[in-house]
UniProtKB/TrEMBL annotation:
Keywords, ordered alphabetically: ATP-binding, Cytoplasm, Cytoskeleton, Microtubule, Motor protein, Nucleotide-binding
SUPFAM superfamilies in UniProt: P-loop containing nucleoside triphosphate hydrolases
Protein name per Swiss-Prot or TrEMBL: Kinesin-like protein
Organism: Rattus norvegicus
UniProt key word Nucleotide-binding: yes
Location of this chain's protein in the cell: Cytoplasm, Cytoskeleton
Length: 452
């Protein structure tokens, strides 16, 4: 059904306590928590003023400084992973200024096992669930894309030991006539276990780190999208469900003026801000009821996340906040962005598709049934003998019909006179054998429709 994008906030632990800004979290409200940030006038205007300005923002839930990775996973990521397992697309993205904890939240910290973030915990959870569920056949693939200066790079390229981002294969966008987005050159890797999936995450993160140099601080200036592609099918069914789960670590949301650099870095800053600006535009367009045109095509980010922002998706945003005094203004702008995101209503639908091979088997059976029915109706005799396989199947049907104690049970052989004649013959022979009356014709309750 329709639901708005969920927004959560996470406040990063403050290292210098005396630099801590003033804020409070109100958990009392039933459906949402609210975060109040107090901006001292002196800080805002550059002169001392006792009047304080305060800003209040609502979130689904706010995680304060001491919140552990486990609860972040449980409350934010697990419900999205569950909906992916059920066949819906899902996206979790972290939005916030550089240093506010996006990577820590999405991927985790390297120092402690308990610091592992949403991606490894989600992989662990998904594979655990897949093992438990033997009613379906699952296939899992992983991709890992980095977008930098409007170019996409495949972080899971097995052929390269990248030393620069530019060494990695360039990923480009293709749009088919149905306006579906395809990513050319983005490799998909099958993972059959949690360990295989974690190794792929590790490979991608290694490429991400190597590509990052002081001149090219890719981690703050690029978006990284880790995607779990899950398909599921019930044994024997022709319907395949596809679901994608995007875990997105966005570029830093700080504004260009703060970057204060020229040349190449300014171009980069312009690009990051442009792509986040386009993300915002898409989000605003989606939240306006009567808009029909959504400007997805403006940037690579919005093109890739197209089916994950509006429409067919469960989307969750984590606003990461650093509430030290000097970061208060950026935090306020992050919260404002989140409030706009919360206005979007998404409609999650199941992505189902028919497996062509199974469909062929189903259609072949349907054709055989229809041919039989046609022959019956037109009275045209089918002269070719029943095949070995058909006879074997018929014997099985008869055997199970004879054994069935249910008086209502029927022998269904389809509208094929050859099969019906075979049944009559079978029962005649058996009747004669068991009654010892070889000269009396057996009475049969078979009717014309071959249902006995
Ligand atoms: P971003 O990706 O937004 O630029 P990072 O995730 O790299 O920020 O965080 C900056 C620093 O703060 C890192 O050293 C990270 O380990 C640390 N950090 C961020 N959030 C937390 C947290 N919740 N608990 C402990 N350390 C954190
Ligand atoms: Mg980061």
């Amino acid at each position: 059904g329709k639901q708005t994008i969920q927004i959560f906030a996470r406040v990063k632990p403050s290292v210098r306590k005396q630099q801590q800004g003033i804020y409070s979290i109100d958990e009392d409200e039933k459906l949402a928590s609210s975060l109040e940030i107090v901006l001292p006038r002196d800080l805002a205007d550059g002169f001392v003023n006792n009047k304080r300005e305060s800003y209040k923002f609502k979130f689904q839930r706010i995680f304060d400084q001491e919140a552990k990775q486990e609860i972040i996973f449980e409350i934010i990521a697990k419900p999205v992973a569950e909906s992916t397992l059920a066949g819906y697309n899902g996206t979790i993205f972290a939005y916030g200024q550089t240093g506010s904890g996006k990577t820590f939240t999405i991927t985790g910290g390297a120092e402690r096992y308990s610091d592992r973030g949403i991606i490894p915990r989600t992989l662990s959870y998904i594979f655990e669930q897949l093992q438990k569920d033997s009613s379906k056949i699952y296939t899992t693939h992983i991709s890992y894309l980095e977008i930098y200066n409007e170019c996409g790079y495949d972080l899971l390229d097995p052929r390269h030991e990248a030393s620069k981002l530019e060494d990695l294969p360039k990923v480009t966008i293709l749009e088919d006539p149905d306006q579906n987005i395809h990513l050319k050159n983005l490799s998909l890797h099958q993972a059959t276990t949690e360990e295989e999936a974690l190794n792929l995450l590790f490979l991608g993160d290694t490429n991400r780190m190597i590509a990052e140099t002081p001149m090219n601080q890719a981690s703050t200036r690029s978006h990284c999208i880790f995607t779990v592609h899950l398909s599921s099918k019930e044994p024997g069914s022709a319907t395949v469900r596809h679901a994608k789960l995007h875990l997105v670590d966005l570029a830093g949301s700080e504004r260009v003026s703060k970057t204060g650099v020229g040349g190449l870095l300014l171009t980069e800053a312009k690009y990051i801000n442009l792509s986040l600006h386009y993300l915002e535009q898409v989000i605003i367009a989606l939240s306006e009821k009567h808009r029909t045109h959504i400007p997805y095509r403006n940037s690579m980010m919005t093109s890739v996340l197209r089916d994950s922002l509006g429409g067919n998706c469960m989307t969750t945003m984590i606003a990461t906040l650093s509430l030290e005094k000097r970061n208060i203004d950026e935090s306020i702008s992050t919260c404002r962005f989140a409030q706009r995101v919360a206005l979007i209503k998404n409609e999650a639908i199941l992505n189902e598709e028919i497996d062509p091979r199974l469909m062929i088997v189903r259609l072949q059976k349907e054709i055989a049934d229809l041919k039989a029915e046609l022959a019956m109706v037109t009275g045209e005799q089918r002269t070719e003998a029943l095949t070995e396989a058909e006879l074997l199947q018929l014997e099985k049907l008869i055997a199970s019909f004879v054994e069935d104690q249910d008086p209502e049970s029927r022998l269904e052989v389809g509208a094929d006179l050859r099969k019906i004649h075979y049944c009559f013959h079978h029962f005649k022979v058996n009747f004669n054998v068991s009654s010892g009356l070889s000269h009396v014709l057996p009475r049969s309750n078979c009717n014309k429709n071959s249902s006995c």
